[in-house]
């Protein structure tokens, strides 16, 4: 028996429930995808074969359904009355330990909390931040541009969006490391069994709450202009936001700001380092860069969250039972060739770009305007100073799957630009 087979055999699995037919069972581990070493998106795309059913069931991570087509992913996100957010992560033990709002709430309870978040993250407010975001991007890039190389993950992608968000939230940049470790355990909880993963996530969730509790106490009733103060002091149904909801909401802001864009940037830059023709097109046609950001988000979705089946139903020909969980790998919407021709290729001229990278429906990502602006500004300033770059020869990125995918080891190199005297 080879090592790969042995590892697969040792994975924690559960028996399928009676309503799951054998022909829909696939051994897919969302935290350890087959072929992950070749790339996170490539591994998920291998699942999406022409004969793959639109819903499959896996015995790993506690046993759950997986939506494999964009149409289903979109529909499930938009249907909270049938597919609840009460448990949004797999395994179930991790999802039940997750205690941040408003992501785990359904309408109408969800609505006032979402309005509170939108007060600070709406498009008009985010546009005011462009100069600040640009200044941060330029400072970081100019710190290594003349050197001719950088480790993109540690020197840029884990620094730039974190600095932007901590400044927006009025928090010290020195806290980034601690918060980053907690975020990692939230989105890729450690453990070999669902119970162990649940305990890891619970501990990280508690760590966030302990961090934000004194911040909430200090800013409650305040008049500051930082994101936390503005959102915290929005009334919910005519009353101050309850303390337990405030803990969850502020923690969610930090989690979202410190993990998703960080990892998206890594996947994006690996691709661009291997496709100089796409980089040249961005430089040649700046408008294509701006419009093409949505194509980049389509191609490099990183989130795979879940929904809870509210009641027994038949859904796209499959019988679902109340309490079933359905994993929604957002990458599989953007990579669905029934929606996009040649989906693995970044096409800056692509029209009718559709994806669920920011989810859909009432839980559509409140931070999407900030994410779009960060990526646009970053590319503009990067290409102005580093117009051509490549992945270092023989470099092998290390990919991680989970609720939010991640990638490490992205050494980039380039010829420093020479300024004429």
Automatic annotation (TrEMBL):
Which residues bind heme b per the record? 110, 114, 307, 363, 365
Q: Which Gene3D superfamilies match?
A: Cytochrome P450 (1.10.630.10)
Tell me which InterPro entries the record gives: Cyt_P450, Cyt_P450_B, Cyt_P450_sf
Which of UniProt's keywords are assigned here?
Heme, Iron, Membrane, Metal-binding, Transmembrane, Transmembrane helix
The record's Pfam families line, in alphabetical order, gives: p450
Q: Where is this region: Disordered?
A: 1-22
**Record-level Gene Ontology MF annotations:** heme binding; iron ion binding; monooxygenase activity; oxidoreductase activity, acting on paired donors, with incorporation or reduction of molecular oxygen
**Transmembrane residues, as ranges?**
246-272
Q: Family membership, please give it.
A: Belongs to the cytochrome P450 family.
This chain belongs to the protein called Cytochrome P450
């Amino acid at each position: 028996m080879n090592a790969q087979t042995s590892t697969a055999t040792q994975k924690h699995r559960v028996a399928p429930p009676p309503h799951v037919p054998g022909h829909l069972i696939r051994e897919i581990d969302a935290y350890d995808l087959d072929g992950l070493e070749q790339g996170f998106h490539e591994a998920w795309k291998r699942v999406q074969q022409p004969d793959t059913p639109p819903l499959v069931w896996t015995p790993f991570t506690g046993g759950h359904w997986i939506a494999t087509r964009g149409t289903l992913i979109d529909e499930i996100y938009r249907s909270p009355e049938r597919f609840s957010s009460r448990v949004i992560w797999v395994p179930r033990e991790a999802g039940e330990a997750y205690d941040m709002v408003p992501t785990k709430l359904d309408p109408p309870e969800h609505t006032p909390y979402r309005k509170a978040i939108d007060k600070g993250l709406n498009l008009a407010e985010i546009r005011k931040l462009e100069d600040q975001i640009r200044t941060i991007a330029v400072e970081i890039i100019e710190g290594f541009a003349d050197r001719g190389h950088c480790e993109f993950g540690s020197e840029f992608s884990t620094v730039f969006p974190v600095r932007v968000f901590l400044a927006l939230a009025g928090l010290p940049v020195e806290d980034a490391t601690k918060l980053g470790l907690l975020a990692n355990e939230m989105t890729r909880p450690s453990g070999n069994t669902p119970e162990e993963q649940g305990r890891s996530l619970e501990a990280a969730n508690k760590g966030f709450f302990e961090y934000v509790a004194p911040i909430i106490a200090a800013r409650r009733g305040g008049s500051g202009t930082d994101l936390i103060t503005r959102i915290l002091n929005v009334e919910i149904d005519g009353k101050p936001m309850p303390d337990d909801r405030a803990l969850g909401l502020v923690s969610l802001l930090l989690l979202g700001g410190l993990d998703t864009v960080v990892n998206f940037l890594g996947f994006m830059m690996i691709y661009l380092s291997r496709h100089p023709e796409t980089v040249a097109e961005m430089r040649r046609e700046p408008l294509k860069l701006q419009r093409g950001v949505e194509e980049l988000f389509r191609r490099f979705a990183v989130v795979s969250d879940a929904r809870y089946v509210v009641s027994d139903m038949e859904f796209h020909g499959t019988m679902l039972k109340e309490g079933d969980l359905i994993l929604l790998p957002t990458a599989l919407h953007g990579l669905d060739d029934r929606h996009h021709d040649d989906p693995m290729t970044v096409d800056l001229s692509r029209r009718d770009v559709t994806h669920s990278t920011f989810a859909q429906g009432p839980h559509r990502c409140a931070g999407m305007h900030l994410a779009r602006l960060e990526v646009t500004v970053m590319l503009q300033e990067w290409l102005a100073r580093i117009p051509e770059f490549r992945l270092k020869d023989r470099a092998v990125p290390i990919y991680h799957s989970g609720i939010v995918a991640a990638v490490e080891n992205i050494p980039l190199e380039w010829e420093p630009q020479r300024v004429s005297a």
